[in-house]
Amino acid sequence: MITYLDAIRSAMDEALGRDPRVFLYGQDIGSFGGAFKATKGLAKKYPGRVMDAPLSEDAIVGIAIGAAIEGMRPIVEMQFADFSTCGFNQIVNHAATLFYRTEVSCPIVVRLPSGGSPGGGPFHSQSMEGLYAQYPGLVVMTPGTVEDAYSMLLDAVTIDDPVIFCEHKFLYNHLRAEELPKETTPIGKARIVRHGRDVTVVTYSAMVHESLAAADELREDGYQVEVVDLRTVKPLDTDTVLASVARTGRLLCVSESFPWGGVSAEVIARVTSEGFGLLDAPPQRLSAKDTPVPYHPNLWSSHRPTANAIASALRRLLEM
After folding, report:
1. Catalytic residue among 124, 168, 209, 303
2. What residue range is the signal peptide (predicted)?
């Protein structure tokens, strides 16, 4: 079986072997193999192309931007998504705007180990996708399956725009597949993971699996829940979302990020502005609590949406 983490490592291995312009750059990613061992063995296989970086996210992204300007295709690893804020200026003010300002492409990939895990706490558990999606010029990917982790990372390397690749670290070793895909879904295209007729759940990343578990629970009550995996949050596949809501008449958006603004708010805004007449009830959203992410595993499991919480929210929505 292939884990989500194996898929990410395999994609980088293939990208390095396929294109001599690709190199990896990040803290302790060389002989140590990275904080989560995503680059394990790659430094030995590709000497001089898997490089340890200084303890400065600002410098890491800045060097990657410079290399991209000179024709390289760097893949940057942040040890945790939270730490990317130390390189925020480079990402949103330089990488994101480079082509607009100069017509020079900036094909960098910034890998963000995202989301929470038991005991992670407030500095190692945040979901940053909504923050980066705010800025023009960035592509923001949020793969929720082993297959997408592999194929979307390979696609990210080929894109001429800077890509924020939000890989969920709780999925690293919890999610498995029998094989890697030979065919891929186009970037920017959502996928209907489960078809239904009563209510639509729009979600992404680790919340796909919590939502599917909730859909299983409601099926016992006779409800058919349609689950849409956005896959990328920028660009956002509004057409697939609207088509789903047209079938069901009800919408619940689920994300692990904080509730203020963000991806769920954007989805609901688009549905209400472009498909208000499709709705039979007010659209709802379920997010993490509006507090820093707690350390204690029990508090953490109450802080983020779970299958039970999603099932409860769906029942309330179906009664409207």
Report:
1. 124
2. none
